[in-house]
Amino acid sequence: MSDERRSFGDLIYELRQKKGWTLREAANRSGLSFGRLGEIERGIDAHSGKSFVPSYMSVIRLARAFGVPPAELLREAGHEPGIELEPEEWDLIGIFRSLPPEKRQDLLRLALGLSSRS
């Protein structure tokens, strides 16, 4: 990628154009809806008309679709991620955040039990 900074949406648009993908094809490859990907590229929420930042799971899905590490994608758009995470770590964060509080505690106990065995 380059040293030039641009908005996240502009970066996604440029990557999509380089791949020769239509918006619909990129949406299908990333698992995002056609409408949401369009909003990400424009940087504007269609309902409110306000600018927004895509969710971390959207960033992960787009990074996977384009074959780029999520941190690199964010860095190219001018964001400096604090910690480099592997895709599996992002998956765990997504799973954790999707759980209700009591299930989060179960997952933490399981993870702590697994880590004490290594």
Describe the secondary-structure layout.
Blueprint lengths: L7 H12 L3 H8 L3 H9 L13 H11 L3 H7 L10 H12 L2 H17 L1
Could you explain the architecture of this structure?
By secondary structure, the chain is an all-alpha fold. Helix content is 64%, strand content 0%. The chain has seven helices and no strands. The model has no long low-confidence stretch (mean pLDDT 86).
Task: Write a concise keyword list for the protein shown above.
mainly alpha; 118 residues
Summarize the structure.
This protein has 118 residues and is mainly α. The chain has helices at residues 8-19, 23-30, 34-42, 56-66, 70-76, 87-98, 101-117. Helix 1 packs across helix 3, helix 2 crosses helix 3 (34-42) and helix 4 runs antiparallel to helix 6.
Coarse structural class = mainly alpha
Portion in strands: under 5%
Any low-confidence stretches, pLDDT <50, length ≥5? none
The overall average pLDDT, rounded, is 86
Radius of gyration, CA atoms, in whole angstroms: 16 Å
Helix coverage percent: 55-70%
